[in-house]
Amino acid sequence: MPLRHGTIRLAVCLAMIGAGGCAPSDEGATGIRVDGSDTMVNLAQAWAEIYHKERPDVRVQVLGSGSGVGIASLTDGNCDMANSSRTMTDKELRRICEKHRLEAKEHIVGYDALAVYVHLANPIDSISIEELKEIYGKDGTITKWSQLGVENPLSDKIIRVSRQNSSGTYAYFRNAVLGKGNDYKLGSIDANGSKDVVALVSRTPTAIGYSGMGYQTPDVKVLKISRKKGMAGVAPTAENARKRDYPITRPLLIYTLGEPTGPVKQYLDWILSPEGQAIVDELGYVSMANHKSQPL
User: Fold this and answer.
1) Are strands 81-84 and 30-36 parallel, antiparallel or unpaired?
2) d(CA 234, CA 240)
3) Domains of the chain, with CATH numbers?
4) How far apart are the C-alpha atoms of 284 and 206, rounded to whole Å?
């Protein structure tokens, strides 16, 4: 039976009941602990609630502490699965191998278009990767909207909204937009979560920020992105991410300690099943079946 938005939204709400955003405990149920990506937290909570309805004997606890925190939690043995919107670093991989004598196993469970947001009153509609690098990069020279040919009657200064450095979105944007080895310019406003970025941009007429496409609201404008200045921009839609036309498309990842077994394997198999992947599409991301398979 096809899933409906209302069903999933209810599932997300129900999954957030309990301390720390976890589902309520069920006496005698097998527990699976999940921590990590804030970008993926709504998706993870929907998976957890719907799976629990099918398997009442399994209780999945979900936290959205950030990709870096989730990976650290997996390393320390405090969770069974780490959600991440970035790949693990060599240092993180070595720590897991040294501590557990196991390799971290990466599982791609969907894809996301990383969107760039501005205030509704901002007249800009499109921006290039090069221009984003000049705005956010350490050596970037763009600090005013007028440098992009935009007239903002309230203020010309660009207010950069970013994420905290434990965020997978922060790391992915740095690598994909600024380039590996480059760093952010100081002076940004660093939001705690994906939702917070969008909310802050909606209240700040001269702001620009980045967050997952699933966090778009009617209160902000989403920019089209081009690979190079002068090229036509592409909107961050599921269809464009699906076709690999959108320049900042990233995988959504789950990490486990080695090959998963038992209830964790069964749960991950369900996430990758048609039913689990239907939830990915329903929540505005791109499922494995609907994404071209070329490497990112």
Assistant:
1) parallel
2) 7
3) 5-111+249-282 (3.40.190.10), 112-242 (3.40.190.10)
4) 27
Q: Work out the number of other CB atoms within 10 angstroms of the CB of residue 18.
A: 13
Distance of CA 121 to the CA centre of its chain: 26
Classify each residue of 200-236 as buried b or exposed e, where b means 16 or more C-beta atoms within 10 Å of its C-beta.
Answer: bbbebbbbbbbbbbbbbeeebbbbbbbeeeeeebbbb
Q: What residue type is 149 in one-letter code?
A: G
Reference 67, options 212, 277, 262; nearest CA is 212
Residues 6+ apart with CB under 8 A from 202: 119, 120, 217, 219, 220
| CA gap 87, 254 in Å, rounded | 10
Q: What is the pLDDT of residues 121-166, one digit of tens each?
A: 999 999 999 999 999 999 999 999 999 999 876 789 999 999 999 8
Could you give phi then psi for residue 281, rounded to 5 degrees?
A: -65, -40
Please give the single-letter amino acid code of residue 211. S
Q: What is the pLDDT of residues 211-258, one digit of tens each?
A: 999 899 999 999 999 999 999 999 999 889 988 899 999 999 999 999
